[in-house]
Every structure is written in C-alpha cells, then in structure tokens.
Amino acid sequence: MVVTLLQTWTWVVVAIMVVYAFRHWRFTWNRISARQRPYYQDLLDSELPPVSIIVPMHNEAAVAKKLLDSLVDSNYPRELLDVIPVDDQSGDATPALVYEYAQQYSFIQPIYNLQGERGKAAALNRALSLAKNEIVLVFDADYTPGRDLVRELAMAFIDPEVGAVMGRVVPRNNAVNLLTRLLSLERSGGYQVDQQARYNLDLFPQYGGTVGGFRRSVVMEMGGFDALTLAEDTDLTVRLFINGWRVLYANRAECYEEVPENWNARFTQLRRWARGHNRAFFVHIVPLMLSKKLSLVQKIDGALLLFIYTVPPILLSGIVVNALLFYMGAIPVIPGIIFAFFVVAYNAFGNFAPVFEVGAAELLDGARERLLLLPYLFYLFLFNSWAVTTGAIDALGDFIKTRRANWDKTKRAGAADAAR
Amino acid sequence: MLLVSLVLFLLVLSLPAIPSMFEVRKPKDDGRLHIMEQYVRDPRWFGRSFRHKLAPFVSEARGNSYGRAELRMRTDEEVRWSPDLEIPALERLRGIGVGERVVVGHGAGIRDAYALERLDVQDDVVARTLTSDATMHIGRAVQILRWIDADGDIEIDSDSDLGLSASGGARVTLGERVHFERVWGAPVASHTSHREPFELDRHKATILDTEAMGGKRSIVVYGPVHVKAGTNIPEHLKVHGPVSIEPGVTIGGNLISRGDVTLAEGVTIGGHIFAEGNIRLGPRSRVSRDGVAKTVYGTGKVLIANDVEVYGWVVSEDGGNTL
C-alpha cells in the first residue's frame, strides 16, 4: 500500500514537471519565433491622464534619493503628477529625505506612517486613500525610472479592458558578484521571455508590484490590498483577472532595480515571495477556476502561475520518495525514465526561469560571454528550492492558523552601490 | 567503489560549470543591460537634432552670400550656404546644402537640404534628408532615404516615398500613392482621387449599434465586430478581432483592435486607433481634432483614402500608403 502510494506520488511529480516543461518551451518558442504583440508605448497623446505615483519606503535612505531625483527629472507634465512617498515607520533618515523633497516640489506629498499596521500592502492602502488620480503607478524605492517611463506605463490605460500594467525590471548592480549576475540572468528570462510570451499569448502576465500600475477605482472596489498578504502583486493580478480585467506587460518600459547582493538577503526575499505567493494560491485557486470571465487556457495558465512556488517542495518530495523507493527495491519505472525526470525537472524548473528560457532571453538582450554562466543556474536552483520550500511551509502555517505574516524587508546595498 | 562512483558523479556534475569559471574569474560580459533613461519619444526628433547641430554654422553664415564649413555629423560632412540655393536638375551633390530658400531640381540626387524659409523639391529627386524652418513642397516620385521635417506645412505630390519619418509642425498633405512609415502633422491629411468607401466584411461579425451598446460608454467585444451606420460610442471600443465600421459612426474615445480596422467613410474617432493588423481609413475619416494629438498605429499596413485627417501621428510598422 505504502509503496503504491509512493509510486503514484512519483508519477504525479513527474507529470507536474512535464507540464511546466511544456509551458516554458512554449513560451520560449513563442518569444523567439512568433510575431510579438505590441504594447501602447508608440502612441503619442497630447491629453495625458493625471497619474499618482506611490513609493512605499521603509529604511530606504540609501536608495530613495535616486528614485526621487528620477521622478523630478521625469518628462511627464508635473501638473499631472502626484507623487506619494509612504514612509513606513523608518528608523533611518528616510523621513527627513522625503520631507526635504516635499519642501522643494509641491507635487511630492509624502505620508508618514508613524504607528500601526506596517508592510507594503498596508502602505499602499494608506496612499490609495489619499491618491488624487485614477491611474496609480508604484515604484519600490530602489528603482530609477527613466524620463519617459511614467508616460509609457500610463499609456496602458487607454485600453478599457486593462486593470494593471507591468514594465520590465533590469538589475543595475549585476556586476557585483556571482549572485547578482545569476539573478540578472533570472530576471532576464522572467521578463524578456516569460512575461512577454504570456502577453503575446493573451494568458496571465503578472503585475509585479513595482514598475507598474493599476486603476485606483478598480482596486478600491475590490477592497484595496489584502493587508495579510506578502505578495500584494500576485494577489492583485489574480483578483483582476478573476473580475474580467487584463494585465498588460510592457517589455520596453524598462527600469533599473537593485538585486540582493548577499545570499542571506536573497534567501529572505525569496522566502517572503514564496510565503506570499503560496497564500495567494490557497486563497484564489478555487475562485480562479470558477471564474466565468476567463478562458480555460487562461485558467490553466493562472493556476500554473499560482502553483509555481509550490513546485519546489513537491520536487524535493519527489526526490526523497524516489530515494525511499530505491532503497525499498521498488523503483516503479525504468532508470532511464527516472533520469529523464531529473532532466525535465531541471530544464523545466531550474531557477524558475528554465535554462533554455534564460538562454533565449540573454540572446535577445545581446549577451555573449555571460551565457557561460548558465550551468550555475543549477546550483542557484538548489538554493532557490530551499528558500521557496521554507516559504511554502510558512504559508501553509499562515493559512492553517490564519496568522499574520511579518514583512521582512530586503536589505538594500544602495549605499555601497553609490560608493562604488 | 561507492566513494569512486560518488567522486566521478560529482566530477560529471561539475563539468558544465568549468567554462563558466573563466567568466566568473575574469568577467568579460558583466555590464548591465543598457536602458536609454534619458530617451523621450519625439516624432520630430530627427529635425530638431539636425537643426541643433547646424545652428552654429547657420547663425554665422546667415546674411552672407556664400559660406562653407566642415561639420562633424556621423562622419565629416561639407556644409554649403547660399541664400538662394538652387541645386540644378540631375546634379549629384554630396554634403549638406543650406539656404534661406532652397530649390532641388528635377532628378537631382542629394544628401541633405535645409531651408530656413521655403524648400521646394522637384520631381524624381532622391534625397537623404530634407529640413525646412517654414514650408516644404515635394514633387512627384521623390524618394527620401531617411526623413523630412518642416516647421510649417508640407505638401507631397504623388508616388513619393517618405522614408523612415515625415514630420511637420503644421499640415502635412499626402498626394496619391505616397509611401510612408511614420508621419506626424497637425493634421496629416490626404488629397487623392480615391473617393470610394472601403468595402466592409461583416462575415460572422457581431453587429454593434446604438441599441446593442445598451447605454454603455465603452465596450469590449471578443471576435469580429461590424459597427452599423450612425452608431455613437461615447468612449472606447476594444475588439479582440477585426472591426469594420460603416459610414457616419462616431467613437468618442479610442478604437483598439486585435485584428484589422476598416473605416468605410466619414467615420470620426476622437482618440487613438491601435490595430494589431492593417488599418484602412476611408474617405472623409477623421481622427482626433485640432489641437489634440493622437495616434493611428498599425502593426500591418495603413491605407489612406481621399480627404482623411489625422491630428497627430500615423505609424505603420509594415509601411503605409495613400490610395
């Protein structure tokens, strides 16, 4: 009985890996061979809409100046801009910095959250209640939007079906060490191929919580951001799709960010993402599958997107189960297929943007020698699996105990970056 | 034996990573992906940039009867000034010709011509760029290799090819069979003999009229759509498929299609037209209004019949034509 269960579980794991492998091969093939779906950045409009920009900040003194300078330098008409930095109980010089900019520029109107609920979702809810405009863009404090980026993102909302838009995130500190270089590869695959293909195929492009925006009225009607979640971006994406809205991906609306420079920071970040994402999976999977406003293909892609941070623990369990079966002398299949399982697992899921997907993305971006780093993604995958599994266990605990998760902010290296 | 096999396994596992070590130890390709952070979309960028580069020469030469200089553009270029610059017919001219008034004679082949007042280009000319601080007239069958830009009106006769970009600060009038990729004007207008409305394909299309709108201001439809004559859509129409529109329809906002767009004739669109396919603008179609710039963008061809006016930008990824 136990052996049969373990053998069945092995096949379930293999099936999941094969599904993801097919999904990512399809994305890669679409990105490199199909006609690409255009975005609206080529449209010029003399009647630009007013835009509110929210910047949640917690101890961001090392990086926030660059962001605020970028927004001051934006090409978007200032009379149409309303910038809301939300100081979320910072213990550093962030409030003073924000105050200084607010004194200089009337379109910067900060909020100081001195006590009470913390975290990005809570900060967004506070700012949303004060935002003046229907179109709201969000930037994390370590981002530096280019001069035309606000216009490029705001153009998405000429489309009456669009609830949110997402731009492309590009690491600016990728030369720092091996980790940042590998994360740069990962970002490249995730955006240049994965997001663009999902947009091309009219599937489930994801709003990523920064370098993006949404309609204020729609989010308010849906009750704002769920303060319990650590992945307000995934949460919003799914809720928008369930309610018949669409998310657009703007591959050429690019913005620099800072990726974690040490393994501890990366572990914390990934664990938080996994925790939040898995909570979104538990909360939204049933409404998603029952939604009457999505096609079957969109539902499947949405489910696979929600499930993605659950797969590493499942894959790990598959490996453990196989080892058990081996020592029990009950390997259910021929060794070649077991081997294929590992190959498929790696190809399909290594680093969340598989090797072939990352390779295609880097080629599209004009990479040369950095392609030699692709084998290292295998080791990063092992690390990611560990962090994600930890996050997934956290999420399961949160869901069962209905407990509130704390926001573990990713530590910035902005000061060091500036010094460099 | 177990130890040997384990060591061999780890060795095989690390094989793919060996070439990577060279890139890790001595990085050759670790630069960040370049983002043009200062870039701002400007349909008249070519003209503005060109004028900016020539401004010192022009301010020095203006008022003189002759001027000559070497300017560093992408390569070194000779610039010549004459108040009334006339490039003879069939002449081959290298360098940049600048004058108050410039005439490029029939069949001439030139690189760049820049007029501070009127620029007149006669038939069958081949030119790299044309710039005018006032008006510009382009004759029949003129071939532009890169771009043209004028602060004032531009009038283009039949069978010309406008290259990558044509932009004007005022009215840009396109004659018959003019080929373009990007045209900016206030407005971009057509003057051709094609006065027949476009034929519409309503096969398997959802029929949309004022009643079907059901009081909605905007509407999103999946599949082909045919909009009946006289329908008034107050805001936006988005169609996941081709859309054909009968005469006299008014759309107050944007028309977005995931297929082809055909406006039969006399259709008014208040906002943008964005199509993942071809766009056909029938006679007397209007896009936007005076003083408000919008865009007609098609990933396929954009075909323009007679007496069409688009205030703003017309972009055709696959090349556009007047009929």
Write a compact overview of the structure shown.
The complex is a heterodimer of chains A (420) and B (323). Chain A has 420 residues and is α/β, with parallel strands linked by helices.
Overview of this structure, please?
The complex is a heterodimer of chains A (420) and B (323). Chain A has helices at 2-33, 64-72, 94-104, 120-130, 149-154, 178-200, 216-221, 232-242, 263-290, 296-307, 311-327, 335-349, 355-364, 377-401, 414-419; strands spanning 51-57, 81-88, 111-113, 135-138, 144-145, 162-171, 212-215, 246-257. By secondary structure, chain A is α/β, with parallel strands linked by helices. In chain A, helix 8 packs parallel to helix 9. Mean pLDDT of chain A is 89; it is low at 415-420. With 323 residues, chain B is mainly beta. Chain B folds into two domains: 45-170, no CATH class; 206-322, no CATH class. Chain B is 13% helix and 42% strand. Chain B contains four helices and 30 strands. Chain B is flat, with a radius of gyration of 27 Å. The mean pLDDT of chain B is 94. Chains A and B meet through helix 6 and strand 8 of A and helix 2, strand 28 and strand 30 of B.
Q: Helicity of chain A, in percent?
A: 40-55%
Largest interface, Cβ cutoff 8 Å: A-B, 47 and 46 residues
Helical fraction of chain B:
10-25%
Rg value of chain B: 27 Å
Strand content of chain A: 5-15%
Q: What's the total count of β strands of chain A?
A: 8
Ends apart, CA distance between termini of chain A: 61 Å
